[in-house]
Design brief:
The protein is built from nine helices and seven strands. By secondary structure, it is of the alpha/beta class. The longest helix is centred in the C-terminal third of the chain and has 21 residues.
Length: 235
């Protein structure tokens, strides 16, 4: 809903996870091109990792007006992100016609109650052969008080995310990321019972476990992980 406030307090904390952002963005970047729409862009940190010469324009869509204002200030101070613009609102806000080549949801879809309707609406904004990309937390059995505190409605598996495939789109890739982080998440759920991780824990995961995941994900054929990534192509 336009003008809604984001309830989570983790955006600043996870902005320190540079290795993780480099990792998942390396998996997504080859599919990002043309006119790009990033839904629920938050503080705008993802554009710096994904925006490239393959992107002719980058639109950050954010329903929280305070976060949108922070993004505008940030982009104005960074010449490398000069092609980024910020719109306050949701996918119901833009002109409802095919106008983008890529639509991206980075840790956003799990916040949306009607996820299937959301992706159907997003696919309507895509041009022919455009791509719809979703990165989301994996496994409902890992749902914790932390998920609830930051507004997660659900977590996903291959089957539940595949079931969200919009009509007129074909699923190109669907796989898990961060197998080492999955073990840490299991341990956290069982033993720590924290509402939010602290900075020390974030840096430990990012600097030690994420590099391990780059190797272990390959060895496990991306069959398990703390996060799940889906890429659809509009037919």
């Amino acid at each position: 809903m336009t003008g809604s406030r984001y309830v989570g307090k983790e955006l600043d904390l996870f902005s320190h996870a540079k290795n993780w952002k480099r990792y998942w963005s390396s998996q997504i970047r080859p599919y990002v091109s043309g006119d790009v729409l990033e839904v629920g862009a938050g503080l705008g940190v993802n554009a710096a990792f994904l925006n490239s010469r393959s992107s002719s324009s980058w639109t950050c869509l954010e329903p929280d007006p305070e976060l949108a204002a922070q993004m505008r200030e940030k982009f104005a101070a960074q010449p490398a992100l000069a092609n980024c613009r910020v719109e306050s609102g949701t996918t119901q806000t833009p002109d409802q016609r095919p106008q983008f080549d890529t639509v991206i949801y980075i840790d956003v879809l799990e916040h949306i109650e009607n996820d299937r309707q959301e992706l159907l609406r997003a696919s309507g904004l895509l041009r022919s052969e455009g791509r719809l990309i979703v990165l989301a937390p994996a496994y409902q059995w890992l749902y914790t008080h932390f998920d609830g505190a930051i507004g997660h409605v659900r977590r996903y598996t291959r089957s539940t995310l595949s079931a969200c495939t919009p009509s007129g789109c074909e699923l190109e890739r669907l796989f898990y990321l961060d197998s080492a982080g999955l073990l840490a998440s299991i341990g956290s759920k069982l033993f720590l019972k924290q509402l939010l991780p602290n900075l020390k824990q974030i840096l430990l995961w990012d600097r030690i476990l994420v590099p391990i995941s780059r190797v272990s994900d390959h060895l496990t054929l991306h069959g398990i992980g703390r996060s799940i990534l889906a890429i659809w192509k509009k037919i």
